[in-house]
């Protein structure tokens, strides 16, 4: 949490003498008054209305067969959950969710790190490149998904390029084949969000004092050695944040799959997010949809906690 | 520490090649939007007879004007509310060291982990019962509530590094709690407020799932849902579709290029927490 502050605090704020005794301790005044907590009430009301109360109700409704319309519903115990873990379609969606999250996490971080190293190595074009690589991050995912849907049509731009460089024969049916459809989703996500990871790695790179690399260079360490022994360990905080954001983002991803492949071909790219949307709003199985959402929530929490533990251990 | 050597030049060329691959989809986007519907040449060839007809057709038939306005209303209102209530809440949560305060803080933090889909479906029913489905208010309520945890997290992290002297001086001068907040604390939060605005604006403007659920079947649409409906209608006429996509991307990219320095810094700074 200190990182936020360090990077964004105004430069002119000079910290007080570190060891100055706090003589004002007896002055309770504004800063310690419990009355202050009143200021938190509006935020808690909005948060309670939009998240806490519905999430608790969701926890109850997941054990019912509610169809979303009727005034009544029956409690059916853990049937929804049994169905999730015994039906092929939902098990496939769970598996695909994990595959997407893993692939996106690895590739987006790898690519983001390479871009960050590239635009932090004294190039004349580096400011221009930074702005360019980040641009897709701000473009609406719906637009990106439609754009790629066109790029990847059989006679689309990507296959045209492949044909032009003599690779027309190996051009796959991008969105028609289960493997390539999943690959397309991952490629598109990496294209859109690599700049996001790049910016965080860049902030990490710029917080490394140049003297460390210079000292290593004087000691005769080559570029590769300097990267592994100096840069990479010092990038640990940036890596931890990037990992957490890409894992969570990859697990929850909805728009990209929904628009680009619609879960197809033949349900091969269906994820928990798209399946829960379809169950609740297309098949009127709200109870089942919410149960799927809860499973997704549990998966996200498990991965966030595991990731935080690992990065804490890495820091020690 | 960097000398401009042959190696640097090689890296420069390599990065430029990557940049070309990167820009390629955007080139196709603009190029396609400019060509007549019957132009069947390769998507890579620059439009031989560029036309703006697609833009006119997309603008009049997709209802993009009102959709852009709706998106703007939802984004601005939500972001203003988020900034106001999150900064206000973060002040006591960062300053008061009581059990109640710590508990409140943890309740808020848990919200950062819950995928919003969990709340989304049950909330659908509440919105319906309140007669809010199909209204922009339903979106504003949802975004404000669900974005509060992350924003409070950013604000408290920043506040903890600020010294209390200003606040205590204000209190000694007789300023009340609220007055201290508005005239002393909030102005000090300015750098992190920029980050909170940018992160939330991008999230709210780009969201697709929530308006798809809460506005479906009504004439009120945000940009993302209007595009979804529009593409479904014109699926075979790619030039018109692309013109629609370009129209909606322009305001976002314009805002980005005008403020890219703050945005890129804000992203990196705000997320390093």
Description:
- The complex is a heterodimer of chains A (about 325) and B (about 270).
- With about 325 residues, chain A is mostly helical.
- Helices cover about 70% and strands about 0% of the residues of chain A.
- Chain A contains 15 helices and no strands.
- The model of chain B has no long low-confidence stretch (mean pLDDT about 85).
- Chain B is globular and about 75 Å long.
- In chain B, helix 3 (about 65-95) packs parallel to helix 6 (about 135-160) and helix 9 crosses helix 13 (about 260-270).
- The longest helix of chain B is centred in the first third of the chain and has 32 residues, at about 65-95.
- Chain B contains 13 helices and no strands.
- Chain B is an all-alpha fold and about 270 residues long.
- Chain B has helices at about 5-35, 55-60, 65-95, 100-110, 115-130, 135-160, 165-170, 175-190, 190-205, 210-215, 225-235, 240-260, 260-270.
- At the A-B interface, helix 1, helix 2, helix 3, helix 6 and helix 7 of A face helix 1, helix 3, helix 4, helix 5 and helix 6 of B.
* Number of E strands of chain B: 0
Separate helix tally of chain B: 13
Shape of chain A: globular
Could you say which overall geometry of chain B the principal axes of the C-alpha atoms support? globular
The fraction of residues in strands of chain A falls at: under 5%
Helicity range of chain B:
over 70%
Overall average pLDDT of chain A: 84
Order of helices and strands of chain B: HHHHHHHHHHHHH
β-strand percent of chain B reads under 5%
The total of helices of chain A stands at 15
Strand-pairing-aware structural class of chain A: mainly alpha
- Overall average residue pLDDT of chain B: 86
- Multimeric status of the protein: heterodimer
- Using only C-alpha atoms, the radius of gyration of chain A works out to 25 Å
Count of β-strands of chain A:
0
Strand count, sense and closure of the main sheet of chain B? none
- Share in helix of chain A: 55-70%
